[in-house]
Amino acid sequence: MGPTSAPLWVLLGLVKAELGDYQKHALRWGVPVSLDCIALAVLTGAVTVS
Q1: Radius of gyration of the chain (CA)
Q2: Ranges of H-type helices in the chain
Q3: The whole model's pTM is what?
């Protein structure tokens, strides 16, 4: 278990949410934002693709 496990479980308990629901919502936003950041880094030359 990582250092963010306890705060995550406390947050989920406070908002009365399930971990699976949280993960679905986080992935719905996290994956596209991550891909956008990678694309921007490639376009600006910060990351090279070879």
Answers
A1: 16
A2: 5-15, 19-44
A3: 0.61
Residue 49 to residues 24, 33, 36, 37: CA-CA distances in angstroms? 30, 19, 15, 14
1, 9 in Cβ contact below 8 A? no
Tell me the CA end-to-end span of the chain in Å, nearest whole number. 36
What is the full per-residue pLDDT of the chain (50 aa) written as tens digits?
A: 688 889 999 999 999 999 999 889 989 999 999 999 999 999 999 999 88
Q: At which residue do the structure tokens 């921007």 appear? A: 40
